[in-house]
Amino acid sequence: MPTAGGRHRRWPGPGEEIAGLIGAPPGSLYFTGCATEANNLALRGVARALRGRGRHLIISAVEHPSVIGPAERLRADGWAVTVLPVDEYGQVDPQALEAALRPDTVLVSVMLANNEVGTLQPVAELAEMTRPRGILLHTDAAQAVGKIPVKVDELGVDLLTLAGHKFYAPKGVGALYVRPGTPIEPLLVGGGQEQGLRPGTENVPHIVALGAAARLAAAGLTAEAQRLRGLRDRLHARLQAVIPGLRLNGHPDQRLSNTLNLSFPEVTGRALLDAVADSIAASVGSACHADSDAVSGVLAAMGCTAEQARGAVRLSVGRFTADGDIDRAAEVLLNAHAGLSARD
Ligand code: PLP
């Protein structure tokens, strides 16, 4: 619509809205079908571009399978892969990263927020180790973008993955931020879409929705994070008051405000969730692979015993969680836990 000045009013496009959310310049985002694709593109695309410079990659022990998988593929192709350990809270030590760097290290990939326990990694401190050495740093921020402030320059990352469905865009759209000038090759060949890095006709409706979701997330970020933290901590306190052996998995405060991963004593997380399935939608691990009964690799890396890992339940609060939901959830979980532990 022409404005008074005679110019056309221009709304920001989805690329600009998402770039704005993560403090990136427009044109540095490449849309993908999901975060899994963005993680694959980051690791394998950089590896292809830099294979002549070195063949050493570093990841953390608590990465999502969509980072571990490509790293394992690279290992099978002859790359050296170092897996950094984490402490009891699930955090990587920047000094351990420094010690693991080698002259042939080309890429480090450490997630910003963990999908099972919510722990935040000291990504900006990791960048202080990689940047001066010209080593690229990728972060899988699928769980973090839209929930906490994320700015690519403050983090110092060269590549960043985001997932639409983690901040209320529809499922089936993600993006990879690539710092301009970063060496990376496409995994697919075809047309020239997404500046040739991700050829194939773009999913325009989903990308538009991703832009709208980014705008909404940016508008309420701080207040919403505070509200969610309040709800989450109230649920934790209600459960802890009655179940003394309850264990929090994840960092007490350097953690996503929506995530509460708890190990319940004397029961399995699976039995507890089955007992409350009519009232509560939660998972024993990450929602992405919630059907698996294998003990969580994340909890194992954090030093949880097998029993603690089997008793773990990941509870999350979100935009549509209200005060009353917390009271109901606490009551239902406490009743189910009392019933199951009395039976054993
Ligand atoms: N990375 C993290 C940290 C995730 O939590 C998830 C999924 O939940 C993914 C990657 C994969 O996301 P997508 O299902 O969009 O491929």
Protein described:
By secondary structure, the protein is α/β, with parallel strands linked by helices. The protein folds into two domains: 14-219, 3-Layer(aba) Sandwich (Aspartate Aminotransferase, domain 2), CATH 3.40.640.10; 222-343, Aspartate Aminotransferase, domain 1 (Alpha-Beta Complex), CATH 3.90.1150.10. It has eleven helices and ten strands. The chain has helices spanning 14-21, 35-50, 65-76, 94-100, 123-130, 152-155, 204-242, 269-275, 297-301, 306-310, 323-343, and strands at 29-32, 56-60, 80-84, 105-109, 136-140, 159-163, 174-178, 247-249, 259-263, 312-316. It has a seven-stranded mixed sheet with strand order 1-7-6-5-4-2-3, sandwiched between helices. Strands 8-9-10 form a three-stranded antiparallel sheet. Helix 1 runs parallel beside helix 7 and helix 8 (269-275) packs across helix 11 (323-343). It starts with 13 loop residues before the first helix and ends with a helix. Residues 1-6 have low confidence and may be disordered. Pyridoxal-5'-phosphate (PLP) is lined by residues 34-36, 39, 64, 66, 111, 115, 140, 142-143, 163, 174, 286, 288.
CATH topology of the largest domain: Aspartate Aminotransferase, domain 2
**DSSP strand count:** 10
| Residue fraction in strands | 5-15%
CATH superfamily of the largest domain: Type I PLP-dependent aspartate aminotransferase-like (Major domain)
The helix content, as a percent range, equals 25-40%
Order of helices and strands: HEHEHEHEHEHEEHEEHHHEH
Which compounds are bound in this model? pyridoxal-5'-phosphate
Taking strands numbered 1, 2, ... along the chain, how are they ordered across the largest sheet?
A: 1-7-6-5-4-2-3
